[in-house]
Amino acid sequence: MVLFFGLIGMPETPRWLVRAGRDAEAREVLRQTHRDGDIDAELGSIREVIRLDTERQGRLRDLLTP
Fold first, then answer.
1. Terminal CA-to-CA distance of the chain, rounded, Å?
2. E strand or H helix at 46, and its extent?
3. Rounded alpha-carbon distances, angstroms, from residue 17 to 4, 11, 26, 42
4. Cβ pair 18, 54 in contact under 8 A
5. What is the pLDDT of residues 6-38, one digit of tens each?
C-alpha cells in the first residue's frame, strides 16, 4: 500500500516522455532531478539511446536463427 501511494506522485521517466514526443515535460522532470546538470546534454543522450533502440529492434525470426 505504501509503495502504491508513493508511486502516485512519481513523474513519468524523461525517456518515456521524449519517446512520446513530450519534450517540454521531459525537460521539466530533468530540471527537478538534475539540478546541477546540463539538461540539454541529457536530453541529447536520451534521444541517442532511443534512436539506437529503434535501430536495433529485432524480428521474431532473429530469435530462431543460431
1. 45
2. helix 39-55
3. 21, 10, 5, 13
4. no
5. 878 777 899 999 999 999 999 999 998 887 778
Residue 59 vs residues 53, 55, 64: alpha-carbon distances, Å: 13, 12, 10
DSSP state at residue 57: -
Burial of 40 (0-12, 13-18, 19+ CB in 10 A): exposed
**How many H helices and E strands in the chain?**
5, 0
Cβ pair 30, 43 in contact under 8 A:
yes
Task: Return the domain boundaries, the chain.
Answer: 14-64
Cβ distance 14 to 43 under 8 Å? yes
Mean pLDDT, the chain, as a whole number?
A: 86
Query: Three cell numbers at 12?
Result: 513519468
